[in-house]
Design brief:
The chain is built from 18 helices and 26 strands. With 506 residues, the protein is an alpha/beta fold. It binds adenosine monophosphate.
């Protein structure tokens, strides 16, 4: 089993459909992409001397070449190590060293940084800039047949975003990625041949995983020419390419619906927005549904179980008449078809409906372990269950509501307080653009609740108003004891709020 077969199948079935596009311009058809990948694969094993299982790293801003090389890597039985383009040289150095990558493909903007990082990565023999002749030369030569790999062979080292310390390389096998893809067809969507995906988020992470279900169905992968997420450009591309799917982090959905150019989005253009990776606040979600219609679904997953743990379907988003509509929107939905999901106590005992505990899951998409990190693997994988580090509770409908990362939970006066619940309330205030709630050490209570708030524009906002909002909506003891107004919230390269940094500020 080799995940590259997804591309081979589409090259046979959807030969002349576009596979890749730069902005509004088609770049390669499925047949041409397969041919190119097969020739590049020959170079990887021949000229570069790579052997099955060797790691190949990527430091590239989103571009079509990244998909070409990734498939060449899988075609040749190698393992891809995509790195976020915005990492620091020292983070690149860590991942290059930890993964033992032999080659690193780069876009020119990152060539210098990677050359610097490479000094600490003794296994790295070659850096290939995809705009140079060294790369274009890889198109020339004979194709080779796809290498047959075992389902357990590593295909993608997915380095976690490292919100707490060093990133860890979740080892995703060919089987993991295939199970994830089939699960997408079962629970999320079956994109039509000739459909499209716009890669607005980094393909080293969230959006890149979407490539598999799209390639398997003959959809075109569209790369914005800006290389980033610009709302007007994204809207233009969604209008240009048919049946468009897109993965957006919740903050990106928010930017979309708050931008004037969303009015230019043609009603038929958009097929599906999947959002996930961080909490989406109910107030934002309702606004998105009002503006975009029945086009939203949610996925809850993590690098260790990519795209797959639970999902909240389009139907549940749209069924406004349902008496539990709001509770449904506040949840992350039900367990995926290929997953067993439980909420457990510290000893791993399953908790009854309504009780909050750690979320664990089991299924074919769950990683094989962390690369080169047996201690972290032993902590996260126990008896075949992945301990996610997320805290949540099931309800009687089988819907999982996420509370927080276990380490973000606040314990005040012996009570557990989940920041997300308070954030949901603060977000109801029209003058709150963004907020994040953390715990501050307190001599008597253990911790007390503090809210960091970013105001919308020049709106005036007094702590008393927010206090009242909390009093109207949640238990007294949960309301923040202090409001800190800030210009912006610290975020990592994936747009996730860094609560560790906020705690340091306290
Ligand atoms: P990463 O491995 O970087 O993709 O981060 C995964 C983490 O993001 C999960 O463990 C959750 O804490 C969070 N996350 C992912 N999806 C969701 C979601 N739908 N709602 C809330 N948090 C999420």
């Amino acid at each position: 089993m080799n995940i590259a077969h997804l591309l081979l199948g589409s090259a046979q079935e959807f030969r002349d459909l576009p596979a890749l596009a730069r902005g509004t311009t088609p770049y390669l058809t499925y047949r041409d992409l397969w041919r190119k990948v097969s020739v590049m694969s020959t170079h990887l094993t021949g000229r570069f001397g790579l052997k099955r299982g060797d790691r190949v790293a990527f430091a590239m801003t989103n571009c079509v070449e990244a998909i070409e090389v990734m498939y060449a890597v899988w075609h040749a039985g190698l393992c891809a190590v995509p790195m976020n383009a915005k990492l620091h040289a020292r983070e690149f150095a860590f991942i290059l060293e930890n993964s033992g990558a032999r080659i690193c493909f780069v876009t020119p903007d990152l060539a210098e940084t990677i050359a610097e990082a490479a000094k600490e990565a003794p296994d790295l023999k070659e850096i290939v800039d995809v705009t140079t002749r060294s790369y274009t030369f890889m198109e020339v030569g004979d194709p080779s047949p796809v290498v047959s790999t075992e389902p357990t062979d590593p295909a993608w080292l997915f380095y976690t975003s490292g919100t707490t310390g060093r990133p860890k390389g979740a080892t995703l096998t060919h089987r993991n990625l295939l199970a994830m893809t089939l699960n997408y067809y079962a629970d999320a969507d079956r994109p039509p041949p000739g459909g499209s995906i716009v890669h607005a988020a980094p393909i080293s992470h969230g959006s890149g995983l979407w490539n598999f279900p799209m390639v398997g169905r003959g959809s075109v992968q569209v790369f914005p020419e800006s290389g980033k997420y610009e709302v007007p450009e994204t809207v233009e591309l969604m209008n240009r390419w048919p049946e468009c799917s897109i993965f957006l982090a919740p903050t990106m959905v928010k930017r979309l619906i708050e931008h004037g150019s969303v009015a230019d989005l043609q009603p038929q253009a958009l097929r599906l927005i999947t959002y996930g990776g961080a909490p989406m606040y109910v107030a934002d979600l309702k606004r998105a549904l009002d503006l975009l219609g029945n086009k939203l679904m949610q996925l809850y997953g993590q690098g260790e179980s990519p795209m797959t743990i639970t999902h909240l379907s389009r139907e549940y988003h749209w069924d406004r008449q349902h008496p539990r509509w709001e509770q449904r929107l506040a949840s992350a939905g039900r367990a995926d078809s290929c997953m067993e999901v439980r909420v457990v106590d510290e000893e791993g005992r399953q908790l009854p409906v309504g009780e909050v505990g750690e979320i664990i899951c089991k299924g074919d998409p769950v990683m094989a372990g962390y690369w080169n990190n047996p201690e972290a693997t032993a902590r996260s994988l126990r008896d075949g269950w992945l301990w996610t580090g997320d805290v949540g509770a099931f309800d009687e409908e089988g819907l999982l509501t996420l509370k927080d990362r276990s380490k973000d939970m606040i314990i005040s006066g012996g009570s557990n307080i989940y920041p997300r619940e308070i954030e949901d309330v603060l977000n109801l205030h029209p003058a709150v653009a963004e907020c994040s709630v953390v715990g501050r050490p307190h001599p008597e209570w253990g911790e007390e609740v503090v809210a960091f708030v970013v105001k919308r524009g020049t709106a005036s906002l007094a702590p008393g108003e927010l206090d009242q909002l909390c009093l109207d909506n949640i238990a007294r003891f949960k309301r923040p004891k202090d409001y800190k107004f800030v210009e912006a919230l610290p975020k990592n390269n994936y747009g996730k709020i860094l609560k560790t940094e906020l705690r340091k500020l306290l």
